[in-house]
Every structure is written in C-alpha cells, then in structure tokens.
Specification:
Blueprint lengths: L1 H9 L7 H11 L15 E3 L8 E7 L2 E7 L5 E8 L2 E6 L2 E5 L3 E4 L8 E10 L2 E8 L6 E8 L2 E4 L9 E13 L2 E10 L5 E9 L2 E4 L3 H4 L7 E6 L2 E7 L6 E7 L2 E5 L8 H10 L1
C-alpha cells in the first residue's frame, strides 16, 4: 500500500525495499539524532526523510514496525508520548499524533528561525519543548509549553555569566511542575562553549548558575531523571574527544568522570540505573 500510494503521488515507482531502507536509515541515525522519549504501549519513533511525498514516520507498536506518512513539510528531531494514543513531535514544526486520526501539523507556529530539538510530555495535557531561535544576531534559547490545549512560547531564562548565544538540546520532566533542560552557551569573546542547564519550577524557567556547570567546558546533548533527586546529563566535553557527564544529586549538579562512548538518552538511562 505504501508503494502504491507513493507511486500515485510522485508518478514514479519507488524502490521495492523502500520500507527496509527507511528502517535501516532510522537505526543508523539512532546514535546521532535523538528520537526522544516514547511512553506507553504505542511507542513512536520519528525521523524525517527527504521525499516528494512529504514526511515519513516509523511506528512501532504491538504489530511491529510500519511506515506512516504525513504531508507536512518539516524536519523532526524528537518525540514524546503522554499516552499510548497521543504523541507530539518537534523540529522545524510541531506535529501532533492522535490514534484515531494519525499525524497532523499543529496550528502553532514557531518564531522565525526557531527549531525545537527536544520534547517531554509528562501528561497528555502538558508538554515542554526546547530548542533555539537564530535571528540575525546571536542565537537564544527557545522554550515552548503546551498547557490547556495551546502551545505558547515561554520566557527563556538568561545566565548571569554574560553569554551571547545559547541553545537547548534536550528536556525531561519528572512531573508537570519539575523539568530540566540542557544545552550549550557561548560567552562574549570566547572561542569555546560551556554547558547550560535550566530548571522549571514554581511556574518559571531559570538557569542553574554553578561553576561545576558553566566552567567545565563543552555542551550537553541529553538529560534524563530517575527521580526528582537523581538526574544525569551528557554531551561532548571541552575538547570534543571525551564526554562530559553531569550528575544532579542532593540539590546540586556536579561534573562526573566519563567513559569514551556516551550517545544519548537511552544509553544514559541504562547508565543511571546500573551505576
């Protein structure tokens, strides 16, 4: 059915092994592009494929992997599901999945130059998505919140360290009122980046100003929490040849020693549970 539909849409026959190619593509990119957090029985993984027919999604559920299609024109980087029947995907657009109707582009529009890199949905009615806005000047963090059925841009926090650009790459939520986001920031006149960690609590986002965070160099690509008092964040170190690992415990983030192969949220959760 997928091949017949794409043939009709593009007036040319797609390869017979189209679905196998897409699956191999998704697995190959697993270690370089986060597919986000998938919750519930209907776990969903999202990738963007360049095709005349539009976006192609990979879906895994009780029946195994299958290919789904959406006609939206966007690139997607992360996905999160508040339940087995409802998911959100983000990137250069915001996409919504409902079991009865499939995927669709949400009416919410990102700011000009805005891209979302990560999303977490602790419930079906609450989501947080983070990324970056790149206007003509320096880039700045972008935070979008989904509350009460509406996506709205939240006030992005700023650091007291004089940074001129910042990007948020990943977000995780222990509950709707307790979330963490991580990324990287560059200071005025600096040739290197430092990690940045933001916390959502008390109805607002704030930057964690700590020498253990801002002074370690590098950036943070992924974050995950075992509970409200135990979180891990990872990314490339200052020289990009060794990893940066930050641990949240006792109300404080501290730099931890790393191995040589830290890829993303799935590996991070495994590390957190086994150490």
């Amino acid at each position: 059915q997928t091949q017949a539909y794409l043939t009709q849409r593009t007036a040319m026959s797609p390869p017979r092994d189209l679905e196998a190619r897409i699956l191999r593509f998704a697995l190959a990119r697993r270690r370089t592009r986060r597919l986000g957090t998938a919750l519930g029985l209907g776990a969903v993984a999202v990738v963007s494929i360049s095709a005349a027919a539009g976006l192609l999604y990979l879906h895994v559920g009780a029946g195994g992997w299958r290919v789904a299609e959406d006609t939206g024109d966007a690139t997607l980087y992360a996905v999160s599901c508040g339940s087995a029947t409802e998911c959100w995907a983000v990137g250069s657009a915001i996409e919504h999945y409902v079991a009865d109707s499939g995927w669709s582009v949400d009416r919410a529009r990102l700011p000009a130059g805005g891209v979302l890199n990560g999303i977490a949905c602790p419930t079906t009615s609450t989501c947080w998505a983070v990324g970056v806005v790149q206007p003509r000047g320096a880039s700045r963090p972008l935070i979008e919140g989904y509350v009460g059925g509406i996506w709205m841009t939240a006030a992005a926090p700023t650091s007291s360290g004089g940074s001129v650009s910042a990007t948020l790459n990943s977000v995780t939520c222990i509950n709707p009122a307790d979330c963490w986001a991580v990324g990287g920031t560059a200071k005025q006149g600096a040739s290197t980046t430092d990690p940045v960690i933001a916390h959502y609590s008390g109805g607002a986002w704030s930057i964690v100003d700590s020498s253990q965070v801002g002074g370690s160099g590098g950036a943070l690509s992924a974050v995950a929490c075992v509970n409200a008092e135990d979180c891990w964040a990872v990314g490339p170190g200052a020289n990009r040849s060794s990893p940066l690992i930050e641990h949240y415990s006792g109300g404080t983030w501290t730099v931890q020693g790393g191995g040589t192969d830290i890829w993303g949220t799935a590996d991070l959760l495994n590390y957190a549970y086994t150490n």
